[in-house]
Amino acid sequence: MSRPELWIGTSFKMTKTRVQAVAYARRLLAEVGAGVPGVTAFVIPPATALAEVSAVLGAGPVLTGVQNAHWEDEGAWTGELSVPQAADAGARIVEIGHSERRAHFGETDATVRRKVRAALRHGLTPLVCCGESAEVLARGGSVDHVLGQVESALGGLPSGPGGLEEVLVAYEPIWAIGEHGREPRPEEVAAVHGALAAEWGDRVRAVLYGGSVTTGNAADLLRVPGVGGLFVGRSAWEIEGYLDLLATGRRHADATG
Ligand code: PGA
């Protein structure tokens, strides 16, 4: 049996103008427009650039996504955008529950759960982010915390197509994310990914790791059992960084395929 595909993607968070995002997408198309063997690449630009980036990448193998979407399809929800609107702009992936949204914008396990169902209702792939704080890590509660978040997000979903089979999970420990984060040790990642793999590994599409991924640690992180891909911020915001990470993914897929 062949190994499942690896997923390697980036969110631009609140960076890049439309011109910058389109230039990035054009370079990506030129370099890997035909796809990366063994790897599914995806880019999640700011919403302002989603339609243009999606148009550049077209119906090709590199997917685009949206960083957040509401659980309702339309209505009086000022400042929000819906899954159908994201799909209309080309998104195939809906990122849900990133810790920055949980910390600053009132995202809760309950809203994450509703958004997962909204994405699935419209045939998009939910990318559900989970991860514990430094305090939870320090008291040894990482596994329980993360399993609780994922159970809350995914519990009760049907298995198979249109259900769990479409879902991506990203383990993103808060203490590892962003410029104040620290690189995780492989054994820290292994502890949580082992538990996620045991509980969800056979049922969801893939479980990714994110948080201080770099071109230097990506190969080691991909070797951690249960890690089915990488979800990357800063290290992929320059196209060379992302291309390097995709090449690392390809080498990993070649070596293990
Ligand atoms: P980082 O962000 O790679 O810049 O640490 C990761 C994330 O928030 O997904």
Can you tell me about this structure?
The chain has an 8-stranded parallel barrel, surrounded by 5 helices. The relative contact order is 0.15. The chain is globular. The longest helix has 18 residues, at 239-256. It has 257 residues and is α/β, with parallel strands linked by helices. The protein has one domain (6-256): Aldolase class I (TIM Barrel). The protein has 10 helices and 8 strands. The protein has helices at 18-32, 47-57, 83-88, 99-104, 109-121, 134-138, 142-154, 186-201, 218-222, 239-256, and strands at residues 6-11, 39-44, 63-66, 93-96, 125-130, 168-171, 206-210, 229-232. Strand 7 (206-210), helix 9 (218-222) and strand 8 (229-232) form a beta-alpha-beta unit. Helices cover 42% and strands 15% of the residues. The structure holds 2-phosphoglycolic acid. 2-phosphoglycolic acid (PGA) binds next to strand 8. Belongs to the triosephosphate isomerase family. Pathway: Carbohydrate biosynthesis; gluconeogenesis; Carbohydrate degradation; glycolysis; D-glyceraldehyde 3-phosphate from glycerone phosphate: step 1/1. One of its GO terms (molecular function) is triose-phosphate isomerase activity.
